[in-house]
Design goal:
The protein has one domain (3-264): 3-Layer(aba) Sandwich (Rossmann fold). It has 11 helices and 7 strands. It has helices spanning 3-6, 37-40, 70-83, 96-107, 136-148, 150-162, 168-180, 183-195, 222-231, 247-250, 252-264; strands at residues 10-12, 19-23, 45-48, 89-94, 112-118, 209-216, 236-243. It has a 7-stranded mixed sheet, sandwiched between helices. Helix 4 links the parallel strand 4 (89-94) and strand 5. Helix 5 (136-148) packs across helix 6 and helix 6 (150-162) runs antiparallel to helix 7.
């Protein structure tokens, strides 16, 4: 199975332009970048794909044991870059895909020029002086709710994650994306996402990195963005004047401008 067929890869924009790879987060697919892509394609070649278990990825590639670890997704990313022979890539990962990017760069940085982490969280659970935003019991309850009634969980959590009550159409879009995801895959992916602890991996990043956070984010609060910024040497931090965990939907133009400015800088 090729990476192209496994991950439903789509490439848009001029072939000789610098390359940006966009990776979606939990419960989403590449379509949720739809408002950012038009802002980027004039100056960049944009690569989109779906993680195994999400969107249009090949269902035959799903392996619950393999994808119980974020490293499997990072290895898939490296496969995509290798198969397409992409070099000097700016990798943009949203939410949990930000940590996939961290792991991919830590595993083999040779094809990466830069890393953009959109609303990242290396650990969702509070730990001593680290404020991840949730207690372990919070996460256990979240996972129990998701596992017992995934569609109900999707409808209940979408407004919290989107954080844009004045734009219900965006909440509906996120909820529909959740609901399109196979519940069995989503249960594994959720545990992988919310129970992972990649704090120690941040220091393994060796490429220029931009951290994009939102002014108010119930899933990855600003303390987390500041922590990621501190842990990755010489990284940059941009705080967008928007709410929620999905600025590529709620504030696509400022998000695209931040990505483009960083990707295009020397």
């Amino acid at each position: 199975m090729t990476a192209r067929s496994r991950n439903k890869i789509n490439v848009v924009g001029p072939g000789d332009a610098p390359t940006i790879v966009l990776a979606h987060g939990f419960g989403c697919d590449q379509s949720l970048w739809r408002l950012v892509v038009p802002e980027l394609v004039a100056n960049f070649r944009v690569v989109l794909f779906d993680h195994v278990g999400s969107g249009g990825a090949d269902p035959a590639a799903w392996d619950a044991q393999r994808y119980a670890a974020l490293q499997a997704y990072a290895d898939d990313i490296l496969d995509i870059l290798s198969e397409l022979d992409l070099r000097d890539v700016t990798f943009v990962g949203h939410s949990v895909a930000a940590m996939m990017g961290v792991l991919a760069v830590a595993t083999d940085a040779s094809r990466f020029a830069k890393l953009v982490l959109v609303t990242p969280s290396p650990c969702y659970i509070d730990d001593a002086d680290y404020h991840g935003g949730f207690t372990r019991s919070d996460i256990d309850e979240l996972l129990e709710s998701l596992e017992s009634n995934y569609l109900g969980w999707s409808r209940a959590m979408a407004p919290v994650i989107m954080g844009a009550p004045d734009r219900p159409e965006l909440t509906d879009e996120l909820a529909e994306s959740f609901c399109r995801t196979d519940p069995d895959c989503a249960r594994v992916f959720a545990r992988t996402t919310f129970l992972s602890d990649n704090r120690a991996d941040l220091k393994r990043v060796t490429v220029p990195t931009l951290v994009i956070e939102c002014e108010h984010d119930a899933i990855a609060p600003r303390e987390v963005g500041a922590y990621v910024h501190r842990q990755i040497a010489d990284s940059e931090l941009v705080t967008l004047n928007t709410t929620g965990h999905c600025p590529h939907l709620s504030a696509p133009k400022p998000t695209a401008r931040a990505i483009a400015a960083f990707a295009g800088s020397k």
